[in-house]
Amino acid sequence: MLAYITIDTEYSSGMVREAGRDCRAENLACAVSGRTGEGEYGLAYKLDMFNSHGHRGVCFVDPMPALLWGVAAIEDMVGPILERGHDVQLHLHTEWLELADADHPLLRSLGGATGRNIKDFTFEQQCTLIDWARDTLVSAGAPPPVAFRAGNYGANDTTLSALAHCGIGYDTSHTPGIVDGDCAISLGAEHRVPLRHQGVIEVPIGCIATLGGGVRHAQITALSVREMVRALRHARDAGTQSFTMVSHSFELVNRQRGKVNRIVRRRFERLCEAIARMKGVQTGTYADAPPPLVTLDPTDTLAPADPVAETLRIAEQVASNTLYG
User: Fold this and answer.
1) Are the C-beta atoms of 270 and 129 separated by less than 8 Å?
2) What's the count of helices (H) and strands (E) in the chain, helices before strands?
3) Percentage of the chain surpassing pLDDT 90?
4) CB-based contact 285:179 (threshold 8 Å)
5) Tell me: the pLDDT tens digits for 256-307?
6) Distances (CA, A) of 245 to 40, 67, 133, 262
7) H or E stretch including 197?
8) In this structure, are residues 54 and 82 in contact, taking their beta carbons and an 8 Å threshold?
9) pLDDT above 70 as % of the chain
10) 74 close to 135: Cβ distance less than 8 angstroms
11) Taking the C-alpha atoms of 280, 221, 29 and 79 in order, what is their torsion angle to the nearest 10 degrees?
């Protein structure tokens, strides 16, 4: 089975709103490099951890900050990924449009339209956004992307049709483990394995069952190591052939305090160690081995709730929030 450890790699638009447009260097240090007083625990740290365990990571890189800072800002993200041998795919946060100059060619081509999520735009506008973002990513040195994830998971069926029109065959914005999120793709919590939808292959974010009948998404900050390892084993044994986990370039660090979150960092390190030891599981990339389609009974694809693991994770989250914010 293939485990996809994905990293949404992005500058912070919120920092630009607070600090102004001249914050590129500080933004890169905080949101991408993960700078702290103890060292850097961001993107490069994660990729080096992958390499030390023989893993491959998938970095969904957002090129939209090039609206403000040019392609060089995107090269600063793409370069370290490719140098370490990992996969670069396309991410897109449309919030950056509000920060761009009104006469920027992309904004002009959109008729001045802005929006929090890509789903806020028409089919033609979404095609324009995807084409511009893809071309910018490639200009920054990345291979042409074959996969996409919407910023905030904020895609809809129109987004998938636009991706197909633009020649991008995979999307991974559907989040069955997040209720009432920004994703508006017409799939439900029961759709948990890769499937064809609106002209592309939709690869759902992994999730597990929780006490009370809910589901929780497989993000490094959302599940404990015990829960993630259990989810991977369940997916392997159920024959799902793939399982997607989400992380971010900045999530091992409290950016406001400039302090590494030791609990989340250790969780990430232990996950890498556990996957390296797990029989029948290896990490995958979209460039070399995209998630395969599979037809299964949906009831077999969800790891059941584990009361002990969930209780321990809640306690761990309380400690993490108390100590590191």
Assistant:
1) no
2) 11, 15
3) 84
4) no
5) 677 899 999 999 999 999 999 999 999 999 999 999 998 766 556 788 888 8
6) 22, 29, 23, 20
7) strand 195-197
8) no
9) 97
10) no
11) 20
Place of tokens 């450890």: 5
DSSP string, 19-49: H-TT-HHHHIIIIIS-EETTEE-SHHHHHHH
Please say if the pLDDT value at position 194 is more than 70: yes
Rounded average pLDDT over 28-47: 95
d(CA 246, CA 232): 13
Residue 14: partners with Cβ closer than 8 Å, 6 or more residues away:
none
pLDDT value at residue 294: 81
Quote the domain boundaries for residue 49. 2-324
CA distance 34 to 251: 8
Instruction: For the chain, give the number of residues.
Output: 325
| Rounded distance between C-alpha atoms, residue 18 and residue 236, angstroms | 45
Q: Number of folded domains in the chain?
A: 1
Phi-psi region of 52 (alpha: psi -120 to 50; beta: other; left: phi over 0): alpha
pTM exceeds cut of 0.90? yes
In this structure, the number of other CB atoms found within 10 A of the CB of residue 280 comes to: 9
Strand partners, 254: 259
pLDDT (mean) for 78-98:
98
Euclidean distance between CA atoms 35 and 258, whole angstroms: 7
Which CATH number does the domain housing residue 43 bear? 3.20.20.370
Give the separation between CA 7 and CA 163, rounded to whole angstroms: 20
